[in-house]
Amino acid sequence: xxxxxxxxxxxxxxxxxxxxxxxxxxxxxxxxxxxxxxxxxxxxxxxxxxxxxxxxxxxxxxxxxxxxxxxxxxxxxxxxxxxxxxxxxxxxxxxxxxxxxxxxxxxxxxxxxxxxxxxxxxxxxxxxxxxxxxxxxxxxxxxxxxxxxxxxxxxxxxxxxxxxxxxxxxxxxxxxxxxxxxxxxxxxxxxxxxxxxxxxxxxxxxxxxxxxxxxxxxxxxxxxxxxxxxxxxxxxxxxxxxxxxxxxxxxxxxxxxxxxxxxxxxxxxxxxxxxxxxxxxxxxxxxxxxxxxxxxxxxxxxxxxxxxxxxxxxxxxxxxxxxxxxxxxxxxxxx
Length: 335
Prior knowledge:
Strand content: 5-15%
Radius of gyration: 21 Å
Shape: globular
Helix content: 25-40%
Number of strands: 10
Oligomer: single chain
CATH topology: Rossmann fold
Structural class: alpha/beta
Distance between the termini: 54 Å
């Protein structure tokens, strides 16, 4: 039987825990069960946030089961959301102080470009911006864009650039209709965000964007349908399922890469730092020829020294972040 003192201690603990929950900020992560998204979810949970993650279909538990194994998963909430459904967005955004939008599909092989890429990426961005503007108490929005916001030819160089040039945020964005539809969709979505910022100079919240190059590293899930981990598998085994991938091998393209954990760290800092409104940060580590990427994925040393094709100087300056050497990142891929 508990003594009065035991009851008092227990009540104090309950009151303290309730106070912690009351003061806990909520971050909504659209696409928080994906390759980059899972690292975002892990990062915010580890820093004491209540994390609300969107998934397309709650019945597909294999898509998000790994999140429930993360540290502090008791502060995790998983909800179903389709970003193309404007009526569903307000409920997801309600109660969030921070929102990270990384819910656009990363697909290389598509049958219906409009339905599979352009609608969820561009229309989804338009719907989100409209909904977030109408949601009170949001402090920060972070968009996970893509290097395609600066160059739709990626991993090829933009027109007029050579291997000896370096690309940064001051370069004029390069858009080509010959680029992959995924890249075109991300470019247009980023233009949509920039247009929104220009047309709404007195927002109550900040918008910051990050544009990573090729994101690689160890997945937090065991899913077999991830495009990011699938590309690593293709390069490791030198498989070319389509002409686009074969072309990368044929020209031994110089590929700019960044560690997935570094991307998540940059997103967290961007989300929790004031004064970054309207900025779009390139996130890039080293660049290697695809032949060297294949070697490192097979735990062998590269034949070439890395280059720095995409500059992350602005991210390093504003976010105080460094970028891991890619050899260790690629060696972490075990499949």
